[in-house]
Amino acid sequence: MTRLLQLSDPHIVPEGQLAYGVVDTAAALADAVDTINRDLHLYGPVDLAIVTGDLTDFGSPEEYARFRNIMDGLPIPYRVIPGNHDLRENLRQAFSEDGWMPDSGPIVWSVDLPDFGVVALDTLVEGQHHGLLDDRAVRFLVDALEAFNGKPVLVATHHPPFATGIIPMDVNNLRNGSLLRDILDAYAGETRLICGHVHRSVTTVYGSSVAMIAPGVSHSVTLDQREENPHTLSLEPGGFMLHEWRNGLVSHTVAARFPADRHPFSSPEEKPEGASRA
Ligand SMILES: [Fe+2]
Ligand SMILES: [Fe+2]
């Protein structure tokens, strides 16, 4: 069985700092790595992990080094794409020795896993918060889909191409998402679009595909759909996703941190008279 872990939006800041003055994002990423290490034997093996952007908060070399240091504890090979908080060339520099990233242009890559392909796309417009697929990324997607030739494909972007109702995020989503939808609609096989950026779990039908936003491993963008949205973050539990092939793509959301205790559903307590239990 083929499995892909998705972590998103760790927003690592320099040592000794809290993101936005309140979030220990490095601790949150370390929690996710620890949870994966602890529980992987329950659902693994996993072929690959992907981090769908906003690896760092400011894109500095120091932040990328800190990110890599924490991710070195992950027992799975991983790859990344940039988000709007990343700086493309600093990110490229941090991963240049790994050999899976193009030397120039958008940071795009694809992997042919046993049951599905993965196509990862760079939507970063440096200096802007919205996303855009440039011509080279579009061409890469079209060529990769042609090579996958009807095999199921999971496409990853940082910016989602659909609205969530959270206005400050929706104005900065993927601007040319309809082009992406048209390309996926024309593909002969099953597709799934996996995104980040909104730091919360959101799912929608997207043309012939299903599009999903993964929770952030750390903080969330507040679910606030009022017109005068002050754009805040919430310290909701972080999480990550497991995408797997079960005669179709199946996606699980897992909390980044929770107690290791397991409690059997069967209980020595007497069942109340007339009660049933799930
Ligand atoms: Fe983010
Ligand atoms: Fe983002």
UniProtKB/TrEMBL annotation:
Keyword Hydrolase assigned? yes
Which keywords are on file for this protein?
Hydrolase, Iron, Metal-binding
Matches recorded under PANTHER family: CYCLIC NUCLEOTIDE PHOSPHODIESTERASE CBUA0032-RELATED (PTHR42988:SF2), PHOSPHOHYDROLASE (PTHR42988)
Question: From the UniProt record, which GO molecular function terms apply?
Answer: cyclic-nucleotide phosphodiesterase activity; metal ion binding
Q: What is the designated name of this protein?
A: Metallophosphoesterase
Q: Which InterPro entries match?
A: Calcineurin-like_PHP, CNP_phosphodiesterase-III, GpdQ/CpdA-like, GpdQ_beta-strand, GpdQ_catalytic, Metallo-depent_PP-like
Q: Source species, please?
A: Hoeflea olei
- Is Secreted set as a keyword in this record? no
